[in-house]
Amino acid sequence: xxxxxxxxxxxxxxxxxxxxxxxxxxxxxxxxxxxxxxxxxxxxxxxxxxxxxxxxxxxxxxxxxxxxxxxxxxxxxxxxxxxxxxxxxxxxxxxxxxxxxxxxxxxxxxxxxxxxxxxxxxxxxxxxxxxxxxxxxxxxxxxxxxxxxxxxxxxxxxxxxxxxxxxxxxxxxxxxxxxxxxxxxxxxxxxxxxxxxxxxxxxxxxxxxxxxxxxxxxxxxxxxxxxxxxxxxxxxxxxxxxxxxxxxxxxxxxxxxxxxxxxxxxxxxxxxxxxxxxxxxxxxxxxxxxxxxxxxxxxxxxxxxxxxxxxxxxxxxxxxxxxxxxxxxxxxxxxxxxxxxxxxxxxxxxxxxxxxxxxxxxxxxxxxxxxxxxxxxxxxxxxxxxxxxxxxxxxxxxxxxxxxxxxxxxxxxxxxxxxxxxxxxxxxxxxxxxxxxxxxxxxxxxxxxxxxxxxxxxxxxxxxxxxxxxxxxxxxxxxxxxxxxxxxxxxxxxxxxxxxxxxxxxxxxxxxxxxxxxxxxxxxxxxxxxxxxxxxxxxxxxxxxxxxxxxxxxxxxxxxxxxxxxxxxxxxxxxxxxxxxxxxxxxxxxxxxxxxxxxxxxxxxxxxxxxxxxxxxxxxxxxxxxxxxxxxxxxxxxxxxxxxxxxxxxxxxxxxxxxxxxxxxxxxxxxxxxxxxxxxxxxxxxxxxxxxxxxxxxxxxxxxxxxxxxxxxxxxxxxxxxxxxxxxxxxxxxxxxxxxxxxxxxxxxxxxxxxxxxxxxxxxxxxxxxxxxxxxxxxxxxxxxxxxxxxxxxxxxxxxxxxxxxxxxxxxxxxxxxxxxxxxxxxxxxxxxxxxxxxxxxxxxxxxxxxxxxxxxxxxxxxxxxxxxxxxxxxxxxxxxxxxxxxxxxxxxxxxxxxxxxxxxxxxxxxxxxxxxxxxxxxxxxxxxxxxxxxxxxxxxxxxxxxxxxxxxxxxxxxxxxxxxxxxxxxxxxxx
Length: 976
Hints:
GO cellular component, one term: membrane
Keywords: ATP-binding, Membrane, Nucleotide-binding, Transmembrane, Transmembrane helix
Organism: Riccia fluitans
Structural class: alpha/beta
Domain ABC transporter: 652-889
Pfam families: ABC_tran, ABCA12_C
């Protein structure tokens, strides 16, 4: 005979004493490898996704439908825009005797159409000044003399008043009218202006078309004066401008300081606004000559240009600034070299050549980052909801209790969501390009892939973190969708303004980009910006070399998202290990990565609750022990002895296991389990009885690692549940109180998955699955290959029992396994459990006394978290049952009192228990009557009293249960 303790693969193995030469069977199975667990998880996930294909297809095709919707909207709107107004102008001309429609700038009279025309040789015209908005009527002597026309002014100031006045005197050219001179040269010499805004295009100068061109003069405007006709060239053809050129007498007004000049401009504008005459003031421009000096050859001037008008401000209006600056430079030249000095430094302005176009709308670029932020982030609620659902339904914990490690679970879960994301974005980009959306087509695909790939991984990591914050999948779904749509709107209407404002600190933008939603928006913003430029200018979109440009923030986005991807993964793994809300069972010490482990009594949250519970119970612990029944005290002593013998072959040892929940809202703490000590040997089925809320399920949940004990511990073949649950899970089977199953998987697929987690492979796995299905009567009629959602409640329960027993686990916990079963299925289940307990330890809870007597070798009764009695059914019945017979008599209701009188004659101390429709129960003390007397009395009175049936029995297990529970309730004040 030998006794030994082995250590194999880091797992401690206790061995019984066996005869020499007999092979020894280890009590704890070897831990499945990472590959084995990952393979099991992968196969299960693959089967689940095949069954759930409709949801997956909807997720992947969503971006496809969005692209098709965009295409439909884009084509519909472009069809509405396919009208002459939004195309280059065309006219019908007689060409070689036939009428043909010719299109081009020379056939366009509408400036809206002109912007869409091809321009090989753009027109040139003099640079003009912006003068105040139209004046009342034509400019003639009559209007001027009647003071109905307000003459505009030019304001000036400077550090040296004399120099400033001299400069101002040279601003407006005198007597430059020369017959025969080229009109473009002529109007480049004189100071010419217009009250018309330049608009968004330089194809036409509105001053020539709208009859609104003025030559600014200080003198010689006392009469109506015609100036030289300007010849306007359109597409190499001379088109005289239909304009009356007029002289506009302009005054010079000196200001004492810049503040005085600003005040005049401001008050003039306010006066015009109050009279609703115009939004313009009466000043053409204003000059601050600062320290300009002819002697020192210093030319320093600030130009204030007039931008007030009715039309909206556009970038093209900046072209009105060039002429005021040119006028100041010419004035300094004349002041320096004489009044006749002149040098042509600004002759004309013209637009660059460009090709023709037609107004179309590219929704992919128009909607831009907002739309694609929403589409990209729509997988976020899907991932979070799936993770929270598994936690809410305890599906992950069920897998973990059957041996699935955290590593394989996260790797396979991450891999699935990554594959789904890749398909999602691949469908999005592919179809977007197929329907010719410029956002995808004009930018390098490799850049798009890198952006979406990094963000996909970042989003999955963020989902893992977010899932730890929720307990309900519906709440998680709502919150995540609010985040998706809210972050998109904040990006479009908040963050984008910071990106476009050049005065905003880049460090502030960098800080905002640390938020994943804003970093995604910034990346999409950059791609959209390059797509817009490419579509407008006909150049390439985003290329890799563009990432080095100073204003391009995509490289920063890549760096931020890559770093956050890694950091978020680390945080997600950490929170999964230390947060109780993660759904992974017992949490680890916050510093577990430094080798710290939870000490005895340590619990989730803080140790305050444990110390409070310990201090309250210490003063009365001895009294409670003394009040325990002898059989409970004997079990406690047995556990203490087993803990001192390390080679004891008992499978389960619970040592003073306690669970206390902190009180809320001023309520006292709830003592769910009060110092339970018990031992279960291999080959034994141990039953737990007790009313609802007695602490049975809580005790099992602590032993299965679902919740952490407040104090005490349990040992499974010497492995501590507080430290070694990962090893215990490999040889543990659980049938939970509520079925934890995937509705989309079949019964066979469930058993295949859990069998693989128990290291079953090949033919051994197939045989074990078939045997399990047959043992619980699920092998006929195609039941194994039906989805679990098609199972009845009893079938699901039988499947849960089969799952708990597959893979030959050494310890099995069954929480009310017979609930919801019909008598036939329950009888078959009992046979399975009886057969299974031969080679393993089983802890079973039940409310059925019949089930407890049939299956359990020993029983205990829980009341208020306390063990009140323990032993086999016969011991409990004889020890706690009343020393009395239970007599049951059924008679017509009118004879009930006669039956009571008869029983009282047999025993004056007989106790009436209950009555129901003529059936009465009595408790008769044994010492007062012999059983033959009862038989004789019942036979004699049968016909006289009309007795239909009667029976006599000893106390049952149910009677013991009721008696113990009632007594405990009476003592509740002592135990609270």
